[in-house]
Design a protein that fits this description.
5-stranded antiparallel sheet; 321 residues; 3 domains; 29% strand
């Protein structure tokens, strides 16, 4: 733990839009507050550049676990991040659109303020495509936008596949496509926007019915995991569409994936990451605003936010030496 009060800024979606019972950013902010740090809320729209330096209009915030009214804001404060902020957490949810990319590029101008995850790493790491750096750990996967290629791939896989948008979040737009479904053509037209948008298609893994394992990594090392078990009438296991959280242990396949992915995450400055594993296969590497901390805390009576803040403070201390 840092031996001095820090100023920690959270660049994030509006606080009144989050579910404080599940949101990971919220408990990170609460933990920073508990440690006596100054906590700032930054709307990404209030980032700017002044004289070539990353700037923001930030609001000091005091938080409590009160659904619908979790925050008390102080007056807005204009500041230069390198002069007044020690750590900035970039925790805006996808999609990674032009506004997201621009906000992250502004944060990349920081030199003394430690930005987590590192902006250059986020911008280079599409959450679906980054996993393809480890394609040997994945089930059969292609990224295309032409519908005939998707149909050919589906036939190669035996008549079914999963199709995902590259820039979605929380399971949005994921489809289980099958040869015998008369809606297949329409689904692929919508997914690809009639062949103008790339999608990822993957082999359907039946093991998803037993759960999609989310593994949280800090600086490339695992701190916790949970299974997200899909509802009976859903292909998606995401918790906000009815997935059920269950405790999960790491097995040999998980450790092999972590050993392969961890060094690249450290190299690219991807400090806090959630990887998804189904049946021993890596499916995604979530780098923008990974979640799961509160669910693991509840299942295992833990406080993962303490480990994350400890690691962030240690990173800051190492940078200052």
């Amino acid at each position: 733990m840092a031996n001095r009060p820090l100023t920690i800024a959270f660049v994030m979606d509006p606080l009144d839009s989050i579910d404080i019972a599940a949101d990971t950013t919220f408990v990170l902010m609460l933990e920073a507050q508990r440690r006596g740090h100054r906590v700032l809320y930054v709307d990404p729209a209030n980032l700017s550049v002044r004289d070539g330096r990353a700037a923001a209009v930030a609001q000091p915030v005091t938080l409590e676990r009160k659904q619908g009214d979790p925050a008390r804001f102080g007056p807005p404060v204009p500041l230069l991040l390198d002069d007044e902020v020690h750590i900035a957490f970039q925790r805006v949810d996808p999609p990674v659109d032009t506004a997201y990319a621009t906000a992250t590029q502004i944060l990349a101008l920081c030199r003394r303020c430690t930005v987590l995850n590192r902006p250059e790493g986020i911008l280079a790491a599409n959450e679906k495509l980054y996993a393809l750096n480890f394609s040997e750990l994945m089930a059969d996967t292609i990224v295309v936008r032409q519908i005939p290629q998707l149909l050919e791939f589906m036939e190669k896989l035996g008549g079914e596949m999963i199709v995902k948008p590259l820039h979605g979040r929380g399971g949005e737009g994921i489809s289980h496509v099958r040869r015998d479904d008369r809606n297949t053509g329409s689904i692929l037209e919508q997914s690809t926007d009639f062949g103008s948008r790339w999608v990822m298609a993957q082999r359907y893994l039946e093991d998803v019915r037993r759960g999609d394992k989310r593994i949280l990594l800090v600086d490339g090392e695992p701190i916790g995991a949970l299974l997200r078990v899909p509802a009976e009438n859903e292909v998606r296991s995401n918790l906000h569409v009815g997935g059920r959280p269950e405790a999960a242990a790491l097995d040999a396949a998980d450790h092999a994936i972590i050993a392969a992915v961890g060094p690249s995450l450290r190299r690219d400055g991807l400090f806090f990451v959630g990887i998804d594993v189904i049946g021993g296969f890596l499916t995604e590497v979530n780098v923008t605003s990974p979640t799961g901390v509160q669910e693991i805390n509840s299942l295992e009576n833990r406080r993962l936010e303490e480990q994350i803040l400890d690691a962030a403070e240690a990173l800051l201390d190492g940078k200052s030496h």
